[in-house]
Please model this.
Amino acid sequence: MSALTPQEAVERALALSRADDCIVIADESSTANLRWAGNTLTTNGVTRSSELTVIALRRSAAGVAAGVVSRAAVGPDGIEDLVRAAEADAASNEPADDAAPLLSGELGDWAAAPADTGIGVYRDVAPALGEAFAAAAASDSKLYGFANHMVTSTFVGSSAGLRARHDQPTGLLELNAKGAGGSAWTGVGTRDFADVDVPAMASDLARRLAWGERRVDLPAGRYETVLPPSAVADLMIYLYWSAGARDAADGATVFSAPGGGTRVGEKLASLPVRLFSDPAAPGIESAPFVIAHSSGRTQSVFDNGLPLQATDWIHDGTLAALTQTRRSSEVTGLPVTPAVDNLLMTGPEGADASLDDMVARTGRGLLLTCLWYIREVDPQSLLLTGLTRDGVYLVEDGEVVGAVNNFRFNESPVDLLGRLTEVGATRPTLAREWSDYFQRSAMPAVRVPDFNMSTVSQAS
Model:
């Protein structure tokens, strides 16, 4: 914020506000990245950014209208113009249907300086990558990929007295290998890269390239399939994004009950799985209160500062909750369960099988690497389509015997939950398709007896 700290920018905007109520959010971010291609580091850099959001609220006999304006790199002289723009937006808007009383209180260390990151976060990763590059070159394969680390400090203040602050580190590393055995991918999410095991990741890719040296063509069809945690994350995150209580109550989604209402309380999974979020989950911690820069079907600017807690979305296989705001809770009659910025899934008690264990118990089936280009076909059933990528492997008598062609799949993650026959151990993972948007997840590998590979894909 140039000469102002984020806290000072929030306070100045609140002091300048002429609205009936006002919420101000300041985000201060720093990012460090590495990129590599063909077994060589190519670029690295550090960037910084800031954004200031002003939410002006205008009361009238008809209700409360909200005006929201966000701008990057706002200096001291630009704050008043931003505040007036938000007020003008509020003046032109109809009353908001998510209006609720503003919250107050202090959350987090408001006075501390923003957290940051730098290239030093890769002090252990960079040398390990160098060793992986040398090993790949010796085996006639090449490694490509990138690592990114961002730390964002968010400060939320309001005219009602709210002063809330959260520091969010977000890191990921994606590693892709190419060689005679095709291509293979692996990735991991992290807070600080201290838990990133580059040698193990590179070793797994080398093993997959070796599997791919034998090619087997298979037709489309339904196959017993083992999905690794990354692929499970892509499917469950989409399910989570689709689990809005308001849309379900309106009859628009797979979670809508026939005749009205929602399917909360209905059995969805064949096994007693748990799908949940917890802002305090070790290794994937997220904001412990609502941070809403804008309103939508599943979030509300009026809920800024609302404390978050561990929430079961599916408990023992039964739909337990849907994401919603305080206002939508009044409409649906369900408890207030705002979205949390992480997602975890666990299986039955004692489910501790590794991916390798599950492969070893497979008579004949497929082992996926990851899914991509996922698109929704039908919201009423949450039918998704997409392609397999970077390795689909044939398993016979507990051994991987080669790589097969890619497929287009058609599956609903909700329907898939009802057909699970095995759930493995839960571990932190990175969704391949949604890694730009959702990095904090922990998932198990799962077994599906009849995963629908609808057509053969020519993608390679």
In short: The longest helix spans residues 79-92.
